[in-house]
Specification:
CATH superfamily of the largest domain: Winged helix-like DNA-binding domain superfamily/Winged helix DNA-binding domain
Low-confidence stretches: none
Largest sheet: 2 strands, antiparallel
Order of helices and strands: HHHHEEH
CATH architecture of the largest domain: Orthogonal Bundle
CATH class of the largest domain: Mainly Alpha
Radius of gyration: 25 Å
CATH topology of the largest domain: Arc Repressor Mutant, subunit A
Shape: elongated
Number of domains: 2
């Protein structure tokens, strides 16, 4: 009687072509990911480069520094903490996810109350 019938050959070929194309795309994406590497440790040169990048910014977050320097998020956070200890930037606000910094020159111009900074 009724029941499941076998698919036509053209439908099976089309399915096979789609699967092969998908595998090719995945392979290309994987190769692109491998070529993109990020710096995972702090050097003096990296800190000086961060200082140069920060001069033109009004607000600095680890994510913006990560994008500009090509480092990992944790390294960007560490660099910002080092720069804060050197009094180059000042912590404006922090929550459990992100810290927002501003340059010291800008903090002096704005003249925030000390309990905020």
């Amino acid at each position: 009687m009724g029941g499941v019938h076998k698919k036509p050959i053209s439908a099976m070929e089309k399915r096979q072509r789609r699967e092969e194309a998908k595998k090719r795309r995945e392979r290309i994406v994987r190769e692109e990911r491998k070529s993109e590497s990020r710096i995972a440790f702090i050097t003096g040169e990296l800190i000086s480069k961060a200082q140069r990048e920060i001069k033109g910014l009004k607000v600095i977050t680890p994510y913006t520094l990560m994008g500009k320097l090509g480092v990992t998020y944790s390294v960007a956070k560490d660099i910002l903490e080092v720069l804060e200890r050197k009094n180059i930037i000042k912590l404006m606000t922090r929550n459990r996810r992100v810290a927002v910094y501003i340059p010291v020159e800008l903090a002096k111009k704005i003249d925030f109350p000390q309990d905020i900074l």
